[in-house]
Amino acid sequence: MKSKVTTLLKTLRAYAIEKGLRLAIDFHQEDSYLMRFANSAISLNTNEKLTRLDLSAFEGRKCATYSMIADPNDVESIKSAIDTLAEMVKHAAPLSYEPTFPVYKREIHDDRAYCPNLARLSNQERLDYFNTVAGDLENDDIKLSGNFADGTTINAQISTETEHVQYFISTDAQILVVLSSLSLKWEVNAEQSAQRKRHLDPQAMHEQLALLVKYYQEAEAVQLPVGKYKVVFGPAAIGEVLSMMGGYAMDGGMQKLGYSFLSAEDIGKQLFSSDFQLVDDPNRSDIFGQMADFAGMMREPFSLVQDGTFKGFTGIKMLPTSTVKHRQDIPCPIRVWR
Question: Domains of the chain by range and CATH?
Answer without folding.
Answer: 2-218 (3.30.2290.10), 235-329 (no CATH)
